């Protein structure tokens, strides 16, 4: 039934009283307005803000469902794929607009606009979700607004946690933890679910680098797992403020409870560290923070900063290694080539693998890059950016308060950007040296611009070393009961939907 027909039917109906007609007319106008707004490119949240941007060209994009917009997409496990498909359908790879409830979004799926967004001071903030605020993460580096406080956090961690000198100092720790993992895998005698082992190793690595100690491992594992769950959840009240008071999914209750438990756990470590005086060489990041003369952090800020590092630095590394091993099993020829490189350059039975050795393994590094291209741990670059003021992307106007995302997965799977994008071929990175740390937006798994990942060198150093140890020690093949299933599940990071179970067959005996 067309809207004109409905209008005439209700308005001129012989049975209606004037009051009834007025009510119907108002109802009709309301319905038309809502539908009219909803049908604008990008959906309802964009329509509401259009008053401000009326004179500018609308950014193309789907309306999504009435009121909900694309909320169901984000509640599902494959948002990156759905957004990539929609950007193509709407011919909007440079920039697409959409709504999730009352939140306005833009997403870039092209290197050019990705560079504009990530490099622009206008997008230097991040939208803090309710769970992050409850965990006090707005005082941690990842969510703090781009101001003096955030700058001082970046400076102090660049100097005392992520500097080349500090990374070199942590080399022995990385290697020891790598060896522990090899032992654990050997002890499994046959088939192994690698995720648990890798996650445990990555967690210990960050804990030791940041806190200088491990604490109660069981309790810590529980806290981290709970944190991933609440932070990775799509929380409807972030986008439908009217629902906030009900806390339907229990996100606020769970985050508050977790925040308290984390406070007690980390607070205890902070107190213990206060008592110990370590010399400069043996100081962990926490000791440095406790000794700061300028820009001293209070305890709750310190806990937020340190805890965020644990979150950010653990699952990204473990998940990336799990994807790499899955690829090694699916491509035995590539695995053989990498093992041959390690045996030739370092030696199959050599002693410890060192960081300088890793620099001589271009094929191994190419495997890491190719896995980051095909399975980026943050396909939507983890946590988004927020427009601080009205700005432009290309010729499009983007109002203040818009959430901006880069779909790195769409870029790395675009055949206009990469030849044979769905083929796993590390050789492409031997033929062409592509920087992956943010200067080339064709592959920027660590983001780019002023909020680029500060832990990228630490993450890469860890992944390179552990991969070299894993490949030198074992031959990897499929489990007899489970194949390799590459299905994805986007939570806080993009995980394998089904944890990888595989056979790790010891190669030659070595003393590494
Ligand atoms: C394979 C490993 C890793 C990947 C793929 C990764 C990826 C990312 C990405 C995509 C961002 C957002 C960048 C942007 O908005 O432009 C980010 C931010 C961040 N990452 Fe990483 N990361 C990794 C390892 C680490 C490690 C080991 C740490 C610390 C121990 C860390 C700490 C952080 C922090 C604190 C931020 C927020 C920075 C800010 O907003 O100023 N990351 N990471």
Task: Describe this entry's structure for a reader.
The chain is globular, with a radius of gyration of 26 Å. Helix 11 runs antiparallel to helix 16 and helix 14 (251-275) packs across helix 16. It has one domain (39-506): Cytochrome P450 (Cytochrome p450), CATH 1.10.630. The model is unreliable at 1-13 (pLDDT under 50). It has 512 residues and is α+β, with helices and mostly antiparallel strands. The strands form four sheets. Strands 1-2-7-4 form a four-stranded mixed sheet. It has helices at residues 3-11, 18-38, 44-53, 71-75, 79-89, 111-119, 130-134, 148-160, 164-169, 171-187, 194-211, 217-232, 236-239, 251-275, 285-291, 299-330, 332-345, 355-358, 362-374, 408-412, 427-431, 456-473; strands at 96-100, 103-108, 191-193, 385-386, 391-393, 396-398, 403-406, 474-478, 488-490, 494-496, 501-506. A hairpin with a 2-residue loop joins strand 1 (96-100) and strand 2. The longest helix is centred in the middle third of the chain and has 32 residues, at 299-330. Residues 118, 141-142, 154, 206, 308-309, 312-313, 316-317, 320, 377-378, 381-382, 445-449, 451-455, 458-459 line the site of protoporphyrin IX containing FE. It is a single-pass membrane protein. Heme binds at residue 453. This is Cytochrome P450 78A5-like. The chain crosses the membrane at residues 26-48. InterPro entries: Cyt_P450, Cyt_P450_CS, Cyt_P450_E_grp-I, Cyt_P450_sf, Cytochrome_P450_78A.
